[in-house]
Amino acid sequence: MQPFKNLNVFKTKTKKRNMIRLKPILPILLLGCMAMGQAQEEVDYIEFNDRKNVVHGVYLGLTTYYGEIKGKSTYLGGLKVAYVANRQFEVGFAGVFLYSEQDNPRTINEDLIGAYGGLHLEPILFSKSVVNLSFPLLIGAGGVGYLGNDFDDRIGDVDEDDIDAIFVAEPGVSLLFNISRYLQLEAGVKYRFSSKLELDASPLRNINGFSGGIGLKVGVFNMGRNRYKKHLRNGQ
User: Which residue, 85, 134, 143, 193, has most beta carbons within 10 Å?
Assistant: First the structure.
């Protein structure tokens, strides 16, 4: 019986020694299991942020401005269509109608009327704020002439000598108020530069001048979506 007793004692001591050796290994095994679980989660999900991508937008804008040409009241109405890149830059087309109370020295009841249009560019600062600062620029061409201001028969008798072609550059500065994702208000000041105006007996040499006003933009200014985690399906 003594040999068997000694054998049992030997087995017990061996088991205790093995348990002592395994104790430092247990935390390592637990950390390994946790790492495997985390790896499995990373396989099942992918994290990303669409805000890092370009956000697209488009809109239709209407503007109304008031200014002066050679001390005479001048009224302007505008229409523009533009694409907005990342809420930081606009590019599109803008058209402007101009009416100025410039009396034709040759004929009574005729004022200066014109229209011009062209490329619209507008860099935008502080685009993620409620109020943005922008610097619109219109570069284009059009025509200006003296036409009847009381809608008489003179309007139907316009010929080439009554209208002169002009080139226009109109830089400005505006405040943009983001009302919603689909609506934006603007208020600003512009200065209009034009090429030389050549109309018979006209004292005007150009239609340069300041103008200030307000506008409304309707469209979608942020067509991007922002998702942070998407579950991967089979085949993706």
Answer: 134
